[in-house]
Structure formats: C-alpha cells, structure tokens
Amino acid sequence: MKNKNIIGLTACIFLFLVGFFMRGNFGLYFNISGLMIVIGGTFGATLICYRLERLKIVFNVVKASYRVPHKSPEDIVEILVDLSVKSKFRGILSLQEDEEETTILFLRRALGFVVDGFVGEQIKDLLKTEMYFFRLRRDDTERVLRTMADLFPAFGLVGSVVGLIGMLAGVGDTSVILATVPIALTSTLYGVIFSNFFFIPFAANLRQRTDHELLLQKIITEGVIAIGTELNPRVLERKLKSFLTPSSRQVQLVTLERIQERFKISKEPRHHPASASEEEGP
Predict the structure, then answer these.
(1) Is the pLDDT of residue 26 over 90?
(2) pLDDT of 47 higher than 60
C-alpha cells in the first residue's frame, strides 16, 4: 500500500508540474522575494504562537508519521490471540518474555500491567488515561499544522500587496512594474501551494494516523484485559474480530500448530495421573 501511494503521488506531482511547463518557462514561477515573504512571515507568526520546542515536536511527529510503519488491526488481533494461547500453556508470567520483544510500546506497557497482577478495571483505567492524553498530544500537533496552513495564504496575500504597492509606486517606469508584478502574483501562488499541498495534507495524514493508532490501542486494551481474565483464546479471537472489517473477519487468524511452533510449546498432550483403580488393575 505504501508503494502504491508513492507511485500515485509521483504521478500526481508530475501532472502538477506539467501544467506549469505547458504555460511557458518554469522559471517564471520562481521569485525569491515572494518566497521569502511567505515563508518568513508564516514561520515568524508561528513562532509567536508556539514555542520552538513545540515546533520541533511537530516536525518529529510528522516525520515519524511517514517513516515509521504501523501495524494493521489484523496483526494486532493475531498477536493478542497468540499471547492468549501462550498464557494458557505457560501461565500469565510467561508474557513477561514478550514485553521486550514487541515493538509496540502501548502493548508492551499493557502486558506489564497484566504480569504485575493488576486487575481488569485498573488496567482499563490506566490504558484509557494514556489513550486520552495521547489524543490530546496529537490534537495539539494537528492544531499547529492547521494554524500554519491558515497563515500561508494570508502571507501570500501580504506578498501580493507588497508587489502592488511597488507597482503603483513605479507607475510610468516599466522596469519597476516588471520587477514588482511577479512578487504580487507568485506570493499568492506560494501561499496557496504551501497550505493546500503540504500543511493541510500533513494535518489530515496525522489525523488518519491518530485514529488508526487509537483503534489499535482499543483492540490492545480489550485483548489484554481478556488475557488477564484467562478468556478462552477462541472466544477472544471472535471478540477482537468485531473491530475488523467484514472482509478481514473471513480469515482464520491463528492456528494451534503455528502457535506451538512460534512459542516452542510441546505438542505432546498433557498426561493426567491415572486413577488408583486403573493403576492397581484387576
């Protein structure tokens, strides 16, 4: 899916740029004065709104949203069912081994609560609190991006006004008019492009990523609580499948043989001590 997105994005950017080339020299659309007004004004206003440390966090979150792969709901359900079966074979404390193996911080922390003996309501309360503040942090980051998206067109308009003032001041002087008109036009162009091609999509992608991660966290919360109560793995699988789309529910997510192989669990059946009458015989 990621490769398809990259291919589609490349094709769309190509079409976007072709539209510029078809109307003449691409250099006509580049003006350093207009670019400085738009970028300098927008980032200056943003620094008035937010501290530099906040902007660094926003940059890191946006970068991670595109670079760090995320698990699918199907993967999370599979992991939780695997862990449920493992706890049945080896006991709850065996899940401690998986705290460091998983790359999902939320799942690792949830497993830690189970291993430490927290009851279901305590685990649910702790994880819901973490989910709540996770969403607040993401909302703050999205708010910064949307603020910048609003500022770019505004400073594009500022650049246009600067260009028009220069043009009116040079009425009668063709050289002055030719130097200031590009500032007026390209500033608006830069403001619209930066806002609608970059920062609004950044905010929308972050919102989609946040909703996806919250869904995974809800699945993990339900699954880990069920594991702590020693719910039957098949019942747990059916319960967690309710979070998935109908097409994903048709797939058998886990088999006993694969779990035994993954966790190196002996396939030999458990031996139950024979009754006294059977041992003594006739």
Answers:
(1) no
(2) yes
User: What are the structural domain ranges in the chain?
Assistant: 30-58+71-265
pLDDT at 269 over 60: no
Q: How many whole angstroms separate alpha carbon 209 and alpha carbon 215?
A: 10
